[in-house]
Amino acid sequence: MSELARMNRLYMKKVAFALSQLSNTSSNVIISNCKTNIDPRRHQWKYNYEDGSIRSVYNGQCLSIENCNTGRGANIVISECHINDSQSLCHGKNQQWIVVVKK
Predict the structure, then answer these.
(1) Is residue 100 assigned to a domain?
(2) How far is CA 48 from CA 38, 51, 65, 80, 89, in A?
(3) What is residue 88's three-state secondary structure?
(4) Three-state DSSP class for 56?
(5) What is the C-alpha separation between 34 and 17, in angstroms, rounded?
(6) Contacts with 17 (C-beta within 8 Å, 6 or more apart), sequence order
(7) pLDDT, tens only, 20-78
(8) pTM
(9) Residue 101 within a domain
(10) Domain span at residue 80?
(11) Is residue 68 part of a domain?
(12) Which CATH number covers residue 39?
């Protein structure tokens, strides 16, 4: 294995989430090492092009900006999806993302 490949393996990270023990609450999103004892599905996300959501493969919840904060350092959490729900905080706009793929 080349030195570069070995270094990449040492520093590889994935986005995962820590589960809340309470129902109807959000869970913090964390950056974890690839080699952890976390259920691998907690590292997997699906982008929905139709509604702009990023959903957890583990439980279907949405990646969200907590409290609709648009400032620097806003907390990213995972919570129930409320896309276009007029009764929810931000009407679910805090759960809609644009994914840009560079070639």
Answers:
(1) no
(2) 24, 6, 17, 15, 20
(3) coil
(4) strand
(5) 13
(6) 27, 28, 29, 30, 42, 56, 58, 77, 78
(7) 444 455 567 766 666 667 777 777 889 999 999 999 998 899 999 888 888 888 888 88
(8) 0.70
(9) no
(10) 3-95
(11) yes
(12) 2.80.10.50
